[in-house]
Amino acid sequence: MSRTINVDYLARVEGEGAMYLEIEGDLVKDLQFSIFEPPRFFEAFMRGRHFTEAPDLTARICGICPIAYQMSAVAAMEDAIDVTVDGQLHELRRLIYCGEWIESHVLHVYMLHAPDFLGYQSAIHMAADHADIVKRGLRMKKVGNDVVALLGGREIHPINVKVGGFYRVPTRDELDAMTTDLEWAYEAAIETARWVAQFHFPDFERPYEFVSTVHPTQYPFMGSRIVSDQGIDISVEEWNDVFEELHVERSNALHARIKARGAYHVGPMARYSLNFDKLPAELQALGAELGIAHECRNPYKSIIVRSIEVALAYRLALDIIDRYEPPSSAAVPVTATAGEGHGVSEAPRGLLYHRYLIDAGGLITDAQITPPTAQNQLSIEEDLMAYVPGRTHLDDDTLQWQLEQAIRAYDPCISCATHFLDLTVRRS
Amino acid sequence: MTLIIGVGNEFRSDDAAGIEAARRIQARAPGMQVHWGEPIDLLDLLKADTETIIIDAVIGNGEPGTIHRIDVSNSPFPAHLHASSHTLGIADVIELSRTLGRLPKHITVYGIEAGAVKVGTEITPAVWDAIDDVVVEVCRA
User: Fold this and answer.
1) Mutate to test the interface with A, among B10, B47, B77, B88 (most CBs of A within 10 A)
2) Within a domain: residue A399?
3) What are the C-alpha distances in Å from A351 to residues A253, A316, A346?
4) In a domain, A11, yes or no
5) pTM of the prediction?
6) What are the chain A neighbours of B100 within 8 Å (beta carbons)?
7) Which burial class, exposed, middle or buried, applies to A26 when counting CB atoms under 10 A from its CB (0-12, 13-18, 19+)?
8) Residue A414 scores a pLDDT above 60
9) A424 in a structural domain
10) Given an 8 Å threshold on Cβ–Cβ distance, is B85 in contact with A13?
């Protein structure tokens, strides 16, 4: 007997893609997770542009994580022209990044992933029964929007970030005005983490190689080194020595892999597991209370990790505002110099790598953009391959639901990236 | 005052229609309150007592450039029209707002049928014409 499941598109994934799954008995015969993506378009689009345009142009790659694209772009450009942005300007960059993690993670936790666990088709169906919870999520997200709007000039495709710093920095009063909301939201995030930790999670862990940016003292937003839990410890410049992107025929997207070993995993679980010691003590204690002390290898539990990272983002935002002293200048001067620059930062979904070559006139001659979802593609496929055996007794609807849920656990941003996700499961 | 919201992705060819229309309306009628961006962020903008017009590309059964004027104040966004490529699309945001009691009493969606939604910045000529028509109609209202 053979059975086929077709789904027109995978709901609640940011963007579009396709999955094909063929099962024979209890074994996965074939599995392909494909995304049809535009980073190649943007890489071509960047060539010939001035290096100072990179933050504004790359911000438009994704409506959900424009700050990540801006931050990796400015890091790469500042590396190319040998400029360092530190002190309060660096802190303001961390602050706007806090806003983006909040916006993106809260959207995912409340609107996209929680409905899976509670058995709802969508956030709308969930809101009918849990209006107060959904309203809490929307209010938490709004606080993130406000941070991005103040620092970025506007919420969508922020325009205030530039190579060297910002066009305008906030006043002390503007930041102070946000602290009441941030304090409320921090407590709401802790309640959120405790709420999601009560969900039922499939018993499923995987021996991922976690990869994340690291910083000597901070939970990472931006950093100059990249590490893994299986021995990678490299500078950003060494990216292409260790990682590679392969073109796979079924997908327009490139699949990233570790040259020596293959699949790896970026995103909240990787950050959390590699940087647990950089979390404030109270959030380490919260992780332990919720059953994920030190690390988390169950992708379904990534919703708990995201919630803890949301709490962290509110906490860090409050700390940065508390210590804020308006810098004397909104940006350090930048001058075009021919060179190559590499930059990484931690998008909500994981590590985002940019590399640019610029000429003496400051024009971009080559661009490489490796988004987190392209890096997680092999890992997503391996999760699905590992999940199906032992669960083929599940009916098609249940299996499909759990597989979609597994894909959503990565919060794949396929629109940085892509087209509708067609899910096909074929059984024989 | 009427709130005008354009939705879309300006790097996804015809999916830029809503954003392009909103930009032009803002240029022609500076007094109007005009926003553009991701549908999910519209939730913060929608208020029961503010008349609202949303403009977005849609994928339906008609010819590219076909304009659908849909009053969603009291009935849901029609299922046969898929609004463009977003996590929570316009239909989701409207229904979520309705469920939470935040939907404007008067809310209209202008859906412009997209021809191409491939990656790129070229807009189909028929969609350009439709953008012109929607801008004129909204500014006249």
Assistant:
1) B88
2) no
3) 16, 19, 5
4) no
5) 0.90
6) 127, 131, 134-135, 138
7) exposed
8) no
9) no
10) no
- Report the C-alpha gap between A276 and A196 in whole angstroms: 19
Average pLDDT over every residue of A223-247: 94
Write the ipTM. 0.84
Predicted confidence band of residue A29 (pLDDT cuts 50, 70, 90) = confident
Is pLDDT above 60 for A264?
yes
Cβ-based contacts of A410 with chain B (< 8 Å): none
Question: Could you tell me if B34 and B135 are in contact, meaning their C-beta atoms sit under 8 angstroms apart?
Answer: no
Given an 8 Å threshold on Cβ–Cβ distance, is B95 in contact with A124? Answer: yes
CB contact under 8 A, A124 and B43: no
Tokens of A318: 């409050």
Query: Could B86 and A63 be called an inter-chain contact, meaning their C-beta atoms sit closer than 8 Å?
Result: yes
Assign domain B3-140 to a CATH class. Answer: alpha beta
The CB density around residue A44, as the number of other CB atoms within 10 Å, is: 11
Residues of B in contact with A107 (CB under 8 A): 40, 87-88
Structure tokens at A98: 């806090």
Closest Cα of chain B to A393: distance in Å? 31
For chain A, percent of residues with pLDDT exceeding 90:
65
pLDDT at A424: 52
A173: pLDDT strictly greater than 90: yes
* pLDDT tens-digit map of B107-141: 999 999 888 777 778 899 999 999 999 999 999 87
> Using the beta-carbon criterion (under 8 Å), do A13 and B87 form an inter-chain contact?
yes
Q: Where are the domains of chain B?
A: 3-140
H/E element, B20: helix B17-28
CATH number of the structural domain spanning residue A230: 1.10.645.10
Task: State whether residue A354 sits within 8 Å of chain B by CB.
Answer: no
The mean of the pLDDT values for chain B is 85
Domain count, chain A: 1
Q: How large is the average pLDDT for residues A32-39? A: 61
Residue A79 CA to its chain's centroid (Å): 22
Q: Do A155 and B96 touch (CB under 8 A)?
A: no
What's the whole-number mean pLDDT along residues A334-357?
A: 96
